[in-house]
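Researcher: Batch entry, complex prediction.
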Amino acid sequence: MEIVRRVFRREKTLTIEALIDFKKLVIKDITLSGDFFAYPEELFEELENSLKNTECRKAIEVLESYRDKLMLIGASIDDIELFIKEECFKD
Amino acid sequence: MEKWRLIIDEGDVYWNMAVDEAMLILREKNSIPNTLRLYIFKPSSVTIGRFQKLREAVNLEYLLENKIPFTRRITGGGSVYHDEGGEITYSIVASIDSVTRDIIESYKRICMGIIYAIKSFGLNPVFKPVNDIVVNNKKISGNAQSRKKNALLQHGTLMYNTDLDILEKALKAPKEKLVSHGVSRIRDRVTTLSIELGYRVNKKEVIDALITGFSRALNIELYRDQYSDEEEELASKLVKKYSSREWIYSR
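Model: Structure tokens for the complex:
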């Protein structure tokens, strides 16, 4: 298990912190924080919860399912996806 | 010309945020009319954005030592220092259709009220999408919006005489943000009407300018009013949420 943290800066700042089980490739915990805007806000919190205790591959599918219904301003779902791909599957 | 309600009041940070959410809920239910609220935080307080981590958004030790109250907003965006004697906050609660469905455009349309207000002092404000207004490239107003299906709440600030020393001590900004703005300190990124004009602007002048500015920007006629019993009741219940550790420390 390892805690990984990255900061993404677009118009606003998105900080992603995750506890990843690299043996099982599972995101045990994750927080997405910053000064960005999300519409609807509740859906963003639902997405964040959906990524917890989730296999990395499944997490990417979850993210994809939110693309059409969640609008982020100043941050991007692309950055969350990049984070999961690069951090979960790093050698 | 459409008539909107105008409410001017003051309260502590928990009450102020509770009233804004109560108005949004009740506007969604069509229980209240479109409203412009102008208010002051008494005592001076800090609010942080819905998705911010408390410890990354504010200097918590400084706030606690100096007994500066703070809470989390329902809107996104960054941390704000609300100076009792130097900043006016506004909130617009309206049906989405009376502004526009396009979120980015709605920010701009409402922010035009602040732009007109600042212009009336002879300054040259610029809207910086999505939610900032700057004068001479320094932030003087920040704005944030939340939406339900049919109603929106947009609240924001206009700093006229904010104590920037306290602001700088109270708030934190990630270094990535400061770098992107080409500054090393928060203080170098913000300004007030008084600083820009070189004389001390008073509260009444700012309130009058905001009333005129929003009336023009939204093409509305404002009439002074009070909260309904239902609003007061709902806001009183929501005060518990905004003063709870569960909400404030949720991130």
